[in-house]
Amino acid sequence: MSFSGKYQLQSQENAEPFMRAAGLAEDLIQKVKDIKEVTEIVQNGKHFKYTITAGEKVIQNEFTLGEESEVETTTGEKGKVVVNMEGDNKLVTTFKNIKSVTEVNGDTLISTLILGDIVFKRISKKI
């Protein structure tokens, strides 16, 4: 299944508790919690280009499945990760102590971030 497409955030669950647990400042949480970010994914085989536009902030990451890559998070942190595919529709990685699962189901992109017992889910639709 191809991840390629442009998706706009439609809804999210547990955003504020997750951002607090991740250590974001309260003023930043209030600023970003309601932004309807757009995610664009270009997949070429095992290589992915992932662009997130949230207001004026644009984050671009590129990675190849199974290979170590440096990525930037939405908070501006940079680090090395290895992204793997589970099944044919889930991208899975861990950065620090946060597990990230991104999956495509038809025209829906579901991004789940797990920190301890807090599950932050973002649902985006293809535009």
UniProtKB/TrEMBL annotation:
Signal peptide: none annotated. Keywords: Cytoplasm, Lipid-binding, Transport. InterPro entries: Calycin (IPR012674), Fatty_acid-bd (IPR000463), ILBP (IPR031259). The keyword Transport applies. One of its GO terms (molecular function) is fatty acid binding. One of its GO terms (biological process) is fatty acid transport. GO terms for cellular component: cytoplasm. It holds the Pfam family Lipocalin_7. It is found in: Cytoplasm. Belongs to the calycin superfamily. Fatty-acid binding protein (FABP) family. Binds free fatty acids and their coenzyme A derivatives, bilirubin, and some other small molecules in the cytoplasm. Involved in intracellular lipid transport. Forms a beta-barrel structure that accommodates hydrophobic ligands in its interior. This is Fatty acid-binding protein, liver. The lineage of its organism: Eukaryota, Metazoa, Chordata, Craniata, Vertebrata. The gene is LOC101716348.
